[in-house]
Every structure is written in C-alpha cells, then in structure tokens.
Amino acid sequence: MKLELRAIRRSEVGRVELPAGFGLLVVDRLAALVEVAAEGADLRDRERLRRYQKALDLCWQEGAITLLPVRAGAIFSHPSEIARLLQERAAEFERDLTRLEGKVELGLRLALINKAESAPPNPPAPSGQSRGLAYMQQLVQRQTQEQNHLKKVEAIIEELATLALEQSYLPPAPNATFAEVAFLLKREDVVSFKTQLQHCALPAIIIGPTPPFSFV
Amino acid sequence: MEHSDTSGYEFWLSEAPLTDSPRQEIVNAEEEVTLLELLDRLLTKGVVLSGDLTLSIAEVDLLYVGLRLMITTADKAVEVGAVKLRNGRLA
Where do the domains of chain B lie? Predict the structure, then answer.
C-alpha cells in the first residue's frame, strides 16, 4: 500500500466527507488530501479517476475549499513522511494558498486547423503549369491559412486574458491541432467569463472550473 | 479510521468501502473527456514535490506519452471516418 499526496489545503476550513480510498492528514494549519492506493494501481483506472474527481469536487466545489493540486508522483510509504513534508514547506504552501484563495482555473482547448478553410490536397494543375508548382503553391496557401488561424486564436486568448487575473499559455507545437490556455479567475467571475466565451467565434472545449493546476 | 503519532499529525481515512459502487466501464463521451482532462492535469500540472520518486515519475512520463498518443489516435480515427460516434460514443 502506498500513499499518494493529491492536494494541500488549510486545515481550519472544516472537514468534508471523502470518497473511498481518500483521507485527510492534518498538521498544524495545513492538511493534505491523500489517496491510499494499492501497489501497482493504475492511475488511468476510471474508477480511481472518478474517486479523485469526487474528492476534488467535495473539497473544492461543495466545500469551497481552496486547494493546491499536487502533480502525480508524490508517493509516500507512511503518513509521517507527508507530515514532515508539510512541516518543512509550510511557509511556501501557506503563501500559495493565500495567493490563490477563492480563485479557480478555467481551461480552454481551441481548435487550430479549420478544415473548411484549408485547401484540398493534391489539386489538379492548371493548364500550362507543372503539378509540382501547383502543389507548392497550395502548400504555401495552406500554411498561410493556418498561420492566420493561429493569429485569430491568439487574439481571442489575448482578449480573454484581459478578463482574467492571470493566464497560462504556451504557443502550440508545430502541427498541433489545438492551442491550450488556462485562465485564473475569481470563483465568482466564472459565470460571466463563460458568457464571454460564448461570443468566441472558434470551436473550443471548456475545461473546468478546476483547482488552479496551472498556477501553482 | 484515525491515526496519529507523536510527530504531531492526525490522519483520517474515509470509511466508505471501495466496493460500495459497481464498476462503470461504459462511459459517455463527455465523462471520458472530463476524466482524460483530469488525468492530463494530474500528470503534467500541479505542485511538484520532489523526493525519492524517480521510478514513479519515470512511469508517469511514459504514461503521459501514451495518453497523448491515445488522444491523437482516437481523434484522427474519428476525423478520417475509421470509427464513428453514435450518441457521443464510439460506434
């Protein structure tokens, strides 16, 4: 059996019911949301992910508790090791909890390639023009369209960023099919931000609101 | 279950049984996306706590690559018509 540290929160904000396999370890003013997992348990297991989602929801949505989510891999063999970690890094965690108090993350995936605007591959060569030249011209045209599309996406991100407290955006890798961006918002601003998103002219997947994964 | 020792911590473990709810293998597309997004964040974002976890982190890196590959492959398969979605599920 192993203990996986999933999130850090303040201890004084009350205890909530947790799903099976989860526990709360309290040290002074901090508390750790801990998952107890069997050796070799697969992180991709849907039931496990559902319980993790439920634990986050109970703490963060229903309990309105600010969480510092922890990246996968923080595995311990005994609760005392987690307690020691919280004690050693208490100042850092408390500083981050204060900075993120009442704030949430809203993520967006914006499609980058608009197939309808892209040129068809291997077009027939116009009369008097070589097939190779026609292909190169179509390729340049397609790349220009994709670059224009990316500029449009980034303009939308820039506009949305003015409504957020912070944003986390890295330019997409070459050939990426979507751009990913996360915005840090006050909890009470989420509804108005989502309303603003509806004016977005590009197809987007909205992720969250979630604890501020991208801002810790 | 409650546990504590002299090092000054208290540990409560949920008493809800793991076998309380039956496994749900069939999920709709919306839940699938939600869980994958959660997994993506769990693997790539959040507070990084270093320690003697090299093996686990190495496993996570491999898992992350696998996840990306799976998403890309599924997306591409739908796009080219190799598989179809019916009511939000793979048909």
Answer: 45-90
Contact B41 A27 (CB under 8 A): no
How far, in Å, CA of A48 to CA of A194, rounded? 29
pTM metric for this prediction: 0.74
Per-residue pLDDT of chain A (216 residues; tens, 9 = 90+): 789 999 999 988 767 788 889 999 999 999 999 999 877 777 778 888 999 999 988 887 777 789 999 988 888 888 998 999 999 999 999 999 999 999 999 998 887 765 555 555 565 666 667 778 888 888 888 888 888 888 888 888 888 888 899 999 988 877 778 888 999 999 999 999 988 887 776 777 888 889 999 999
Residue in A closest to B72 by C-alpha: A177
Which residues on chain B are in Cβ contact (under 8 Å) with A213? 41, 45-46
- Residue A22 pairs in a beta bridge with A35
For an interface test with A, which of B12, B24, B40 has the most A Cβ atoms less than 10 Å from its Cβ?
B12
DSSP-derived 3-state class of residue B52? coil
- Taking contacts as CB-CB distances below 8 angstroms, the residues of chain B near A210 are 38, 41
Q: Do B49 and A70 touch (CB under 8 A)?
A: yes
Residue of B7, B9, B52 to mutate for A, most A C-beta atoms under 10 A = B9
Decide: B1 and B15 in contact? Cβ < 8 Å: yes
What is the number of alpha carbons within 13 Å of residue B5 lying toward its C-beta?
Answer: 8
Helix (H, G, I), strand (E, B) or coil at A101: coil
Q: How far apart are CA A169 and CA A174, in angstroms?
A: 15
Could you give all domains of chain A from N- to C-terminal order, each with its CATH number? 3-99 (no CATH), 103-215 (3.30.70)
Predicted-complex ipTM score: 0.79
Taking the CA of residue B88 and the nearest CA in chain A, the distance in Å comes to: 15
